[in-house]
Sequence to fold (197 residues):
Amino acid sequence: MAVPFVGLTGGLGAGKSTALAAFQRLGAATISTDAVVHELYGSDEVRDAVTDRWGPEVAPGGVVDRSAIAARAFADPGERAWLEGLLWPLVGQRVWDFRVRCCELDPAPRAAVVETPLLFEAGLEAMYDATVAVIAPEDVRAARAAARGHHAVDERTARQLSQEEKAQRATFSVVNEGTIDDLQQELSGILEKLNPS
Fold:
């Protein structure tokens, strides 16, 4: 049986990572595109490309400084487009490899879930069998983002669709304003719908 391929998205501080962990506990295979990007920054290929473009100060001691990269990429749309052109094909290949591996697993996972912050913005929804948008009240999101020390929140949020639009475009939307157990219960219901017995 084919493993449902699910795209998970949501705004900054809505609880995407919490939802991804809950999906994993519920028997789904999971991958985070943010984690893939983090890994790619550790590769020689990406480190060499960003230092050629922006100089050795973005990788002190040969280690990419993600905040230095973000400062350059978010300040200039041309630089951001260059960075996305470098990273997105590499991320896409990792996600494809993940999907192929999930289809070969025995027993099969209940779903293959990919956390993709800019899923709709990047026009990726057609790749997936279903999409899930996690949303949360604005005050909750702001508090979570601040607690994690996110810089350039306004610039990042400006690039994203509103929560309401993500929720409308997604196959399923989940409001994350209760406990982790509440969230997990909602996600369990989504997996039931994706895997009708």
